[in-house]
Amino acid sequence: MQQITALELADWLADDARPSPMLLDVRENWEFETCRIDGSVQIPMNTIPARIDDLDEDAAIVCICHHGARSMQVAAFLERNGFGKMVNLTGGIHAWALQVDSTMAKY
């Protein structure tokens, strides 16, 4: 699994020459409702095993949570299940709010 910073992810999303990754937000509903990166798809961490078939194992997937720990666990789980392009957002949505989008709600 690769690690990516908030600034690196922002650059990736802004680069029209690169295919955009799937942004997989594994936080709970209340967290996702509080703040999110535009274009993110929410599948709470505890529902990932039941919804694994909803994901494209060939796609680049960036896992997102609050600070990066839950998303790292999900990315590792998906890698163990055949997903080859997993990326974890280090620092999570909190790092995004601090480094990329200062208007984003923090919790």
UniProtKB/TrEMBL annotation:
Q: Does the keyword Ion transport apply?
A: no
Q: Which UniProt keywords apply?
A: Transferase
Please give the Pfam families that the UniProt record associates with this protein: Rhodanese
Example of a GO MF term: transferase activity
Q: Where is the Rhodanese domain?
A: 17-105
Q: Mind telling me what this protein is named?
A: Sulfurtransferase
Taxonomically, what lineage is the organism? Bacteria, Pseudomonadati, Pseudomonadota, Betaproteobacteria, Burkholderiales
